[in-house]
Amino acid sequence: MLDRLMALFGSDPDAGDTHQRKHHDTHELQMAAAALMVHAASISGSFEVRERDGVRAALMRHFQLAEAEAEELIEEAAAAAAQTTELYGILKKIRQHLDPDERVAILEMLWEVAYADGVIHDYEANLARRVAGLLYVSDRDSGIARKRAIDRLDAG
């Protein structure tokens, strides 16, 4: 998945700073995903330990990050989330740079975070439905992502 993300950015082979641009763009996309997850985890009024653990696990698995890298992303995302509640820019970046299957994977991460504390709050469910619409994920695919997230959490 990370290779696919890297391939999405900076496809100009003649550019001297292609690697640096790829790294920057990949980090921005990871930040966007982390900010979305942190927002989802804290929308119920608190950012609990289990929810933070869920965000970390989802980021590590999805982006193949080390625990320290995922934790750093969470810290950056939490600081950014404290300064804004605007999600459209985050979702626009995700929508523009990821194909439909990858957007479903981001939504699956969101469902995992929403269920991380064992309870889905109305605000979390509403957020997931809005995000699905803004990422152009169908109701069917959103339901499948939700089920996979629940199954993954139940299994482990």
Q: What do these coordinates show?
A:
- The N terminus is likely disordered.
- With 156 residues, the chain is an all-alpha fold.
- It is built from 8 helices and no strands.
- The longest helix has 25 residues.
- Helices cover 77% and strands 0% of the residues.
- It starts with a helix and ends with a helix.
- It has one domain: Orthogonal Bundle (TerB-like).
- 35% of the residues are buried.
What is the topology?
Layout: H1 2-8, H2 18-42, H3 49-63, H4 67-83, H5 88-97, H6 100-115, H7 122-134, H8 139-155
List its salient traits.
single chain; TerB-like
Summarize the structure.
With 156 residues, this protein is mainly α. It contains 8 helices and no strands. Helix content is 77%, strand content 0%.
Q: How many angstroms does the end-to-end distance come to?
A: 22 Å
What is the N-to-C succession of helices and strands? HHHHHHHH
Fourth-level CATH superfamily: TerB-like
- Biggest sheet, in brief? none
Task: Let me know the average pLDDT.
Answer: 83
- Determine the strand fraction and express it as a percent band: under 5%
CATH-derived architecture: Orthogonal Bundle
Helix content: over 70%
Cα radius of gyration in angstroms: 15 Å
- Into how many domains do the coordinates divide? 1
Shape: globular
Count, helices: 8
Number of strands: 0
Instruction: Write down the CATH class.
Output: Mainly Alpha
